[in-house]
Design a protein that fits this description.
The protein is of the alpha/beta class. The protein has two domains: 3-199, Rossmann fold; 208-249, no CATH class. The protein is 55% helix and 16% strand. The chain is built from twelve helices and eight strands. The chain has a six-stranded parallel beta sheet with strand order 4-3-8-7-5-6, sandwiched between helices. Strands 1-2 form a two-stranded antiparallel sheet. Helix 2 (40-48) crosses helix 3 (50-58), helix 4 (67-75) packs parallel to helix 12 and helix 11 packs antiparallel against helix 12 (221-249). It starts with a strand and ends with a helix.
């Protein structure tokens, strides 16, 4: 599928329908593949971390999760389809999995939160296959991590959702990829908390106009102020500098 270069990160030109088709193919062919997401924060981390950038660029699919990335692509002369945000897409994904008979494993969040998330999914989709779930508060290396990997491999889910926050989730996936017996791995950020109903989603008018970041900032200013108040302008400065550089090279 075509890709768009956003400051060295290769972002796939893919929408929800395309993601479902790619997931179905990975499961049909019994592959083990990563479907990563990028927003402005992800691009900023990739600019600081070669390891994280390499993780993204080695992933089977990298889909656009943020309006900032779409805007960046537009400034650079490329077009990305509407963003796919896992906190919203999860319900479409679960409907798709219920229909196709695919199983999921939810990993991340507090123990009570992940249990509530699974319960909410089962209420909406009573025939869905939940292969298992586990909280994200375990040591990410050593015996505890190995036990979690073993648990997942025994469950053999078609889709593994991993929500530790970025880049911890990506690095854990990278370190354990060879032992994870699953077909599709989805880094998920704080999606489990939203699915549990522990965090509120932005109103539609904000989400549809690229202002979801502002809603999240006011929810958690202490944690997110640097990401948005410094990270967003930094990203746009680098995008504009890249656009000027490309134009001068023509």
């Amino acid at each position: 599928m075509p890709k768009v270069d956003i400051l060295g990160v290769q972002v796939d030109v893919i929408d929800t329908e395309g993601l479902h088709a790619a997931i179905a193919e990975s499961i049909r062919l019994q592959r083990r593949e990563i479907f990563a997401y990028v927003n402005v924060n992800a691009i900023n981390i990739a600019l600081r971390s070669h390891r994280f950038k390499d993780f993204l660029n080695r992933s089977h699919v990298v889909y656009c999760d943020g309006e900032g990335v779409r805007l960046g692509g537009k400034i650079l002369g490329a077009s990305l389809p509407p963003r796919v945000v896992l906190t919203y897409w999860i319900w479409e994904l679960c409907e798709f999995c219920e229909r196709e008979g695919y199983s999921l494993f939810f990993l991340g969040g507090a123990a009570q939160f992940v249990a509530e998330a699974v319960q909410n999914v089962r209420v909406r989709f009573p025939r869905i296959k939940i292969a298992g779930s586990f909280h994200g508060y375990f040591e990410k290396t050593g015996r505890q991590s190995e036990d979690v990997v073993d648990m997942i491999s025994v469950a053999k889910p078609n889709i593994l959702v991993v929500g530790f926050g970025m880049p911890a989730q990506e690095f854990w996936i990278e370190e354990n990829l060879a032992r994870l017996d699953t077909n599709v791995i989805l880094p998920a950020g704080s999606m489990i908390d939203y699915t549990a109903g522990r965090k509120g989603l932005a109103p539609a008018w904000m989400a549809n106009n690229g202002m979801e970041w502002l809603y999240r900032f006011f929810q958690e200013p202490g944690r997110l102020w640097k990401r948005y108040l410094i990270g967003n302008p930094t990203f746009m400065f680098k995008i504009l500098a890249e656009a000027i550089s490309r134009r001068l090279k023509r």
